[in-house]
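User: Fold this; tokens only.

Assistant: Input:
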Amino acid sequence: MKISVIILTLFGLTLTIKTHGQVYLKSEYVSSSPFKDENNQKTGGSGDMFKVNGGVSIPLSFKQEENNRKKMWALSLDATYATYNNKHIPAFMHPDNIINTTLSMSHLRPIGRKWSMLAVLGGGIYSDPSHIKTKSILGSGGIVFIYHLSDKLDIGVGVGVNNSYGVPLGLPMGYLNWHIDGKYEVKVEMFEAAEVSAAVAFNHWFKLRLIGLEVDDTSAVMDVEGQSKIFGSVSMKSGLQADFLINRSSSIQLTGGGLWNRSACVINRSMKDYFK
């Protein structure tokens, strides 16, 4: 099943506060779009989306090693609440509300002149907020080995493990972080999510960013006719973002743009169905 949106309007507000850690709050709205089946045919259903997500990241320890490599332990809490104004879409195909929460611990350390290791372990609730059960709690973890090609480019590879499909499932993971800072900025990030963007700073308090691609997702464990299934939705979007720096520790971002694709599916929580 698929919800397709072409050049519709997406608005967002982001507040970032940087102290010893980082706190963010973001809201976005996606206008209504038709609901299509697996054959890309309209079903008569439609829906819009309003989503709020926020989080806090607290470094428990931080040390700058030689060659500017970082050694750090950090604790993070992230939460997302999404509500969908679904019309003529069966509840077993698309929930009306989703809550995703994640509490995670991460550790970054150098393991050589050109290498670092990043390890993450966490878990949280992925569910319709009115149907939270023990099986709604999902765990995940991963380890990535990062090679520092230069001060501006890091690549890596590793493995991630989660129990979204019933039994713990390990899958390969890639890591890419390329950034150019200054008046003109370029950022390419691909790890748990993906973002490709470029920005120009007009002065010390205003920056304009073109988001070429941003990918995010939501998921929920569901009971359908007595079977445990998992719902997943992935969004691919582009836009123009205005970044207003309030002071050295906080900023506000306003974004408008388009959602190119929002896909959704419900599958059984089994390795067989995952690979199928």
